[in-house]
Amino acid sequence: MKTIKMSIPVLLILFSIIFLIASFNLPKANLGNPNAPMYFPAGLSIIMLIFSVIYFFQELKNIHKENQYIRQILSGRTPKLIGFTLLFGAVYAFIFNPLGFLLSTIIYLGALLFYINGSNKWLVNIIVTISFSFISWYAFSELLGVSLP
């Protein structure tokens, strides 16, 4: 992906340089200013070259930022959070049919919130778990008419 992102501005830079060289090789005019035919294409190619160089440096900057984001994601507590969220999601999918939507959602969301927030915020975790589960159940089953197991 990085190669594709960087190849586009490089191609634009090469194209603008070729276009600039070709515009200088245009035939001279017989009437008026002899260099007049090359002004417009040369100006366009110079503008395109400037914007292509700016685009190139922006892509370099974005790639550097993406590398920093990936390092931040893979450091600290984040990999554990991702792993446990996937594990809780798998357990949720396993218990969804036997226990039903409401009970399995309460268990899943409660476990996830207690893992993320810790037991210090137990009241907030319980309120969010129960209210979200009942509101989503009510919205799907009563308002939208979707039957939940």
From TrEMBL:
Q: Mind telling me which InterPro entries this protein's record contains?
A: DUF1468
Give the keywords, sorted.
Membrane, Transmembrane, Transmembrane helix
Give the DUF1468 domain ranges. Answer: 9-149
On the tree of life, the source organism's domain of life is: Bacteria
Q: A Pfam family for this UniProt protein?
A: TctB
Transmembrane stretches in the record are: 7-26, 38-57, 78-95, 101-117, 122-140
- The answer, when asked if RNA-binding is one of the entry's keywords, is no
User: This chain belongs to which protein, by name?
Assistant: Tripartite tricarboxylate transporter TctB family protein
Organism encoding this protein: Halobacillus amylolyticus
Q: What is the lineage of its organism?
A: Bacteria, Bacillati, Bacillota, Bacilli, Bacillales
